[in-house]
Design a protein that fits this description.
Helices cover about 45% and strands about 25% of the residues. By secondary structure, the chain is α+β, with helices and mostly antiparallel strands. It has one domain: Ribosome hibernation promotion factor-like (Double Stranded RNA Binding Domain), CATH 3.30.160.100. Strand 3 and strand 4 form a beta hairpin. This is Ribosome hibernation promoting factor. Associates exclusively with 100S ribosomes, which are dimers of 70S ribosomes. GO terms for molecular function: ribosomal small subunit binding.
Length: about 120
């Protein structure tokens, strides 16, 4: 799983990079083989004006499916990262469960049709 981290309005410190990578790996650990790319964008929306303006946007690239986009805005950037990573993990698990469910469903009447063909040959 590749993790790309971008910042807007501030520099990416080694500690912040480590926090993002640790939280992403923890949140996506169970399904990491299903994710080809993770893009994390960290930004200070309001700049020096203050307020609830630290944003973490996570985009998960999944093979054969639409990308998953998670957005969290908080007063504290670390809280925004934690919330976005948690939501990304839950959303990914839900989407993968839906994909497994869809693949395992059979079209209605498939077994009946095969039985009818077998009866006709006998």
């Amino acid at each position: 799983m590749q993790i790309f981290i971008q910042t807007q309005g501030f520099d990416l410190s080694p500690g912040l990079r480590e926090h993002v990578e640790r939280r992403i790996h923890f949140a996506l650990d169970r399904a990491s083989e299903s994710v080809r790319k993770v893009s994390v964008r960290l930004s200070d929306v309001n700049g020096p004006r203050g307020g609830e303006d630290k944003r973490c946007r996570i985009q998960l690239g999944l093979p054969g499916a639409a990308d998953v986009l998670i957005d969290a805005t908080e007063l504290d950037l670390y809280v925004a990262i934690d919330r976005a990573a948690d939501r990304a993990g839950r959303t990914l698990a839900r989407q993968l469960a839906r994909q497994r469910e869809y693949r395992h469903e059979r079209p209605h009447g498939a077994d009946t049709h095969a039985a009818t063909l077998g009866d006709a040959a006998a």
